[in-house]
């Protein structure tokens, strides 16, 4: 571990201890909660699982993945979350993408910088070939878990006709600051060279499933508070988001539309991952209109942001200014992820 990273970890310990004091929930005459979405990029352990294609992250692979590298990855992801906690507050919920199994989640929440927050875990094994799953961490006291389940999505390769499964969509119901909310954690199919522009039939199918889940919840309760989060592998302006999911940038959405606080951020040039010198904003937290209601006793949307800090970026070399990744190809860089976390702050009167 280099000196700069060690210093960052020590600083995070100090700041978290100073900010995690009794009464921290009382702000602005009410309570506040922070929700994070973070693609942690290949959080794999070192154990061979014969049920999935995890060969890339084994000790005998070209990457030479090792226990030391795995533990460093756990420390790094924990550091990112603890830095968010130190600058704002400890996240009430964290939607994660690209985790291999429940074991890596348990290692993460029990790591030195996170164990004091006592995060709970919601996770299901996914049928994805590589075994990468989505998950939700939640902080008891700010979020009370009621129920959870998953929806699977089977796709068909248009060239071969072969069917395959992608990541499940995780649906969690609970009480955020005492108000019932529904959380849908996504990791839509990745972009491929065969995509027509930015459009993909695979992501369209994923968007259709997500929209069906949203509509089902709204049919039960038109005022349902729903947040749709994760790595969509599309920007806020792409067809899957705007036309199928029907998420728009206006805080006064029309009937049936969702509010996407990340849309305006993307138009201003902000992003969560760089590619070919441009920033994409694949990581988003999208909200049902009920979150715009600031009525007495209601949890409502306050603000959103990309957590972009210098320590998460390469400081030199060919990738200066890009996200500081664990690997670039098979070259170990010892960083965090190719994505930056995004978050939304909610308040309650």
TrEMBL record:
Keywords: Endonuclease, Hydrolase, Nuclease, Signal. Residues 35-348 form the Endonuclease/exonuclease/phosphatase domain. SUPFAM superfamilies: DNase I-like. The keyword Protein transport does not apply. InterPro entries: Endo/exonu/phosph_ase_sf, Endo/exonuclease/phosphatase. This is Endonuclease/exonuclease/phosphatase family protein. PANTHER family: ENDONUCLEASE/EXONUCLEASE/PHOSPHATASE FAMILY PROTEIN (AFU_ORTHOLOGUE AFUA_3G09210), ENDONUCLEASE_EXONUCLEASE_PHOSPHATASE FAMILY PROTEIN (AFU_ORTHOLOGUE AFUA_3G09210). Residues 1-22 form the signal peptide. Pfam families: Exo_endo_phos_3. GO terms for molecular function: endonuclease activity. PROSITE patterns: PROKAR_LIPOPROTEIN. It comes from the Bacteria.
């Amino acid at each position: 571990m280099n000196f700069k990273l060690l210093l960052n970890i020590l600083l995070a310990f100090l700041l978290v201890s100073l900010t995690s004091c009794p009464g921290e929930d009382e702000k602005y005459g009410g309570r506040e909660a922070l929700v994070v979405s973070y693609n942690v990029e290949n959080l794999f352990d070192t154990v061979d699982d014969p049920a999935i294609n995890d060969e890339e992250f084994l000790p005998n692979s070209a990457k030479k993945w090792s226990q030391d590298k795995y533990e460093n990855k756990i420390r790094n992801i924990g550091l990112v979350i603890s830095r968010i906690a130190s600058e704002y507050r400890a996240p009430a919920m964290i939607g994660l993408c690209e985790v291999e199994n429940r074991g890596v989640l348990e290692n993460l929440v029990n790591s030195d910088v996170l164990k004091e927050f006592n995060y709970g875990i919601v996770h299901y094994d996914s049928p994805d070939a590589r075994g990468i799953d989505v998950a939700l961490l939640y902080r008891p006291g700010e979020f009370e878990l009621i129920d959870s389940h998953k929806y699977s999505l089977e796709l068909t390769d248009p060239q071969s006709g072969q069917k395959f499964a992608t990541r499940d969509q995780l649906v969690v119901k609970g009480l955020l600051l005492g108000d019932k909310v529904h959380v849908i954690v996504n990791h839509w199919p990745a972009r491929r060279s065969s995509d027509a522009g930015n459009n993909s039939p695979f992501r369209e199918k994923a968007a259709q499933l997500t929209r069906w889940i949203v509509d089902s919840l709204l049919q039960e309760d038109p005022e349902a508070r729903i947040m749709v989060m994760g790595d969509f592998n599309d920007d806020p302006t792409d067809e899957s988001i705007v036309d199928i999911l029907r998420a728009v940038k206006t805080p006064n959405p029309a009937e049936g539309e969702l509010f996407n606080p990340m849309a305006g951020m993307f138009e201003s040039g902000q992003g969560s991952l760089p590619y070919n010198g441009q920033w994409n904003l694949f990581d988003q937290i999208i909200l049902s209109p009920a979150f715009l209601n600031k009525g007495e006793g209601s949890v409502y949307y306050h603000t959103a942001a990309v957590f972009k800090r210098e320590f998460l970026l390469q400081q030199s070399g060919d990738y200066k200014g890009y996200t500081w990744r664990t690997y670039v190809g098979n070259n170990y860089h010892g960083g965090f992820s190719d994505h930056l976390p995004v978050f939304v702050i909610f308040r309650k009167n």
